[in-house]
Specification:
With 301 residues, this protein is of the alpha/beta class. The protein has twelve helices and eight strands. The chain binds cobalamin.
Length: 301
């Protein structure tokens, strides 16, 4: 299990982790700044993802991160987002998972939206890895290992954001056949969950028929399609039109994006929105949940 699980911690553990008194912490719980549950014996317990949400909002410094299951040294040095891509790239290429984890967790706790961490840190690191692979400077196993590390980090962020409300709008998505790229669709799931959506990535290389089945059965408000590789443009367009028809029938919006969606291909497609970045996607998702009234509770709400 990833270390930032939704485990429960006591007010005392949180107080020690951020170096405040236990009574301040209990007061914040009573004021509703922190959501606590009670044990059968009446003691307060806090979910780690709720605590992290509070820390991101309040900017409280963490002095003993290990008490919350975070990497030791979390918050020890300020991470500058514009320099983080380079640092993450080094960690990914050398397979230093702990270094990568510390960087990403630090950016998250510093309040950077996950969409920015993906667009401005993870994606550029991968673009560099791709470039270096092309030049023969990075071996294939290093590239694959970097993908594995990133997926683990994204799943950890997924657990670190607040659990979406059962009434929140739903989204499903993934990639079509011949598109094995797992990182972008995993990112989208996490970014939408941070925006309060009940988002589920169906994974990669889905035959259009089963992607359509998922839309039909899950009845999402939003469908995403990430396109990083297209083997045959006519086959892709045919698969896509099937998805689009199902989404339309089910009254779902369809958002497309990804590096392989060249302008001439996009011009042959019908969609609700095309986004270049996950930042665009989260802005779009927020405007939808505002409009439908099926309010997704944004972390900063
Ligand atoms: C990892 C990787 C692979 C892995 C992927 C493993 C996995 N499980 O995911 C595997 C091994 C499959 C692979 C295979 C190949 N790869 Co490759 N791969 C990469 C690499 C290094 C990283 C891809 C990645 O995950 N990037 C991170 C994501 C997050 O970045 P992104 O795609 O730009 O996504 C961002 C936006 O586009 C946007 N976005 C993406 N999707 C969506 C969707 C929506 C709805 C929205 C809103 C936004 C959005 O948000 C993201 C965040 O900002 C890229 C380099 C690169 N430039 O990315 C090469 C790269 C894509 N691969 C390349 C090549 C050549 C190949 C192979 C042909 C190699 C080979 N000879 O076998 C095969 C082809 C496989 C296929 N069927 O197409 C080339 C493609 C060149 C070209 N002209 O198309 C690249 C660019 C490397 C290079 N510089 O040469 N690859």
């Amino acid at each position: 299990l990833p270390r930032i699980v939704k485990t429960l911690v006591s007010p005392k553990q949180v107080a020690q982790a951020i170096n405040v008194s236990e009574s301040s912490l209990k007061r914040w719980c009573d004021q509703g700044m922190l959501t606590a549950t009670r044990t059968a014996g009446g003691h307060r317990r806090l979910a780690v993802n709720e605590v992290l949400h509070f820390l991101r909002q309040s900017g409280q410094k963490i002095v003993r991160p290990e008490l919350l299951g975070l990497p030791s040294n979390t918050g020890a040095t300020a991470v500058v987002i514009d320099r983080a891509a380079e640092q993450l790239h080094a960690g990914l290429v050398s397979g230093d998972e702990e270094r990568c984890r510390r960087l990403v967790v630090d950016l998250f706790l510093a309040g950077h939206p996950i969409s920015d961490i993906c667009d401005r840190v993870l994606a550029p690191a991968f673009h560099d890895i791709g470039h270096q692979w092309e030049q023969g400077e990075v071996t294939i196993y290093r590239e694959r290992r970097a993908c594995e590390i990133s997926i683990k980090l994204l799943l950890e962020l997924r657990l670190a954001v607040r659990t979406p409300d059962a009434a929140a709008p739903r989204a499903v998505g993934g990639t079509l056949e011949h598109d094995p790229y797992r990182v972008p669709t995993t990112m989208i799931e996490v970014v939408l969950r941070e925006s309060g959506w009940q988002a589920t990535s169906l994974g990669t290389q889905l035959p259009a028929s089963t992607f359509a089945e998922a839309i039909d059965e899950c009845r999402p408000e939003l469908v995403w399609l990430s396109v990083s590789a297209i083997e045959s443009v006519p086959d892709f367009l045919q698969d896509y039109s099937r998805l689009h028809a199902t989404a339309k029938k089910c009254n779902a919006m369809i958002v497309v994006g990804g590096r392989a969606l060249a302008t001439d291909i996009r011009q042959q497609m019908a969609y609700t929105a095309y986004c270049d970045t996950l930042h665009h996607l989260s802005t779009f998702a927020d405007s939808i949940s505002d409009r439908t009234g099926r309010r997704a509770t944004r972390p900063d709400a």
